Amino acid sequence: MTLMHHYATDTCSQLFVGARQIQVWQHDIPALAASNAVLLHGILAVTAAHYAWREHEPARRDLFRSRSLHHHALGLPRFQEMVASASSETAEVVVAYAILLSIWVCAIPEVAAEQQQSLDEILTTVEAIRGARAVFHLYRGTIMDSPMGVFLDRPYPAPPPVPVAEAPGRQNPCVRQVLRCLRDQVLHESDKSAVQQLQMSLDRYATGLDHNRLAAAWMASVDDGYWARLRGNQPHAVLVFAYSTLLVHASEHECWWISGWSERILRACSDVMSCREVATTVDWAFHERQIRAGAGELADAVKRADMGESRS
What is the tens place of the pLDDT at every residue in 254-270? Predict the structure, then answer.
């Protein structure tokens, strides 16, 4: 009962931004979970992770982390069985659990204080997000007619509803210039496309809407060609992934379940990019300075914009 109370009064409104999303997670998903144990375990796993993330007392933090792992262990095998025999009748539950799974795999490293992860471990985690996106598209028609349809809509129309030049201070012209230079530097078309998608995400972020969804959306939406290059540790693909921390870092103060991700990604990329073979083709030290400086400037711009909006 403690976890369900916490979910109903706190966690449900801390997953995604916007009244439509909060409505889904506060009312529709619990109603669906009332008759589905798999989805209930997904809710409880994420809620316990959120509770542990909020806790400062080590013993209680450990307690709720253990509960989170427990509910995850109970729910995941049943979810995998459900996916193997999925149909239009179970699509809504499959998609809802897939979203919760994506949140959980992002949140649990910070909750468990797993500060050092290899790039391969991080990419394996991110593949849960990419897998969730694949589930969305598999059952698109069914889901669009359900309350979960809000998650199949683009966060914003394209182009962004507010021109970047008029956005409330969230975008930084220096960041745009850095990404333009990065796109000119990388050679493979998949890498160039990934940079362009990252710029589009940052432009949309500049509107100040649905920031945490965008932070995960870039990783989920880059094409398979780029993803294969990234998994193969191709230097330019890894470099582009490192630059994605611009968006992640700017979102962390507003989204608990991606907290700590920018630093984990940068450290993992640094391990790959600092090797002697890569150092002859990519000046990683220069790029790391650029990324950290740009991330700090963007995060400061976001906070200033938020403070201005709260006063108005």
Answer: 789 988 889 999 999 99
State the angle between helix axes of 173-185 and 284-311 in degrees (0 to 180), rounded to the nearest 10.
150
- Note the pLDDT tens digit of each residue in 199-247: 988 887 766 655 666 777 888 889 999 999 999 999 999 999 999 998 8
Mean of the per-residue pLDDT values of the chain: 84
Could you report the per-residue pLDDT of 130-177, keeping only the tens digit for each?
A: 877 777 788 888 888 888 887 666 544 444 444 444 444 445 567 788
Token digits of residue 274: 């600092």
CA nearest to 250, candidates 186, 198, 184: 198
Residue with tokens 């500049």: 206
Radius of gyration of the chain measured on its C-alpha atoms: 19
CB burial of 216-251 (b: ≥16 within 10 Å; e: otherwise) equals: bbbbbebeeebbebbeebbbbbbbbbbbbbbbbbbb
Six token digits for residue 15: 């997953």
Q: Give the span between the Cα atoms of 49 and 51, in whole angstroms.
A: 5
Closest CA to 92 of 49, 55, 52, 42: 42
pLDDT surpassing 90 at residue 76 = yes
The residue extents of the domains of the chain are: 2-151, 164-311
Q: Which are the contacts of 48, defined by CB distance < 8 A and separation ≥ 6?
A: 3, 64, 65, 67, 68, 71
Contact 206, 175 (CB under 8 A): no
User: Which amino acid, 170?
Assistant: R
Distance CA(208)–CA(170), nearest Å, equals 7
Reported as type and span, the H/E element at residue 290 is: helix 284-311
